[in-house]
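Note to self: keep these together.
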Amino acid sequence: MQSVDCSILFCCMGNICRSPTAEGVFRKLHQELAPQLRLHIDSAGTHDYHLGQPPDERAISTARMSNIDISTHRGRMVMSDDFSRFDYILAMDNDNLSRLQRLRPKESSAELRLLLEFAEDCVLKEVPDPYYGGPRGFEQVLGLTRQGGIGFLKYICQKQGVTLQSSDLQREKKPARS
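Structure:
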């Protein structure tokens, strides 16, 4: 991996719904708001249910409506070396955060957190799994990952001494609702 300012891994259970959506949303936010940062962005699952598979078609379709293409993503599982390759590993929910904490090697310096810890004024603390629901769940995931992604990008920029390139974010403080 070439020199980066920060490396981020988004994690959910199977790596076909929430985490590839979060990865795609965050890539777009990075390109639009802080392209001067050198970031390594990826996603993975805590379980091996969907290894090598593309994201859920509903996730692809919902992301596409926001001009985000996640169709080339392929599911993968978190590996032990991810805990040394990434500065931040952001889980979508407490179950996956707990699993990541159990998988984490003792010598790891990666920060393990929930993505929505960074979402300003958000009433939810976890990104709900939309897999067994309909399109509204995937739309909610997109909105929540955007809200968490904006907050996390602000956090990284502050730590790196970088200014975001848009003032439009001040207007995006509506809390996501379930």
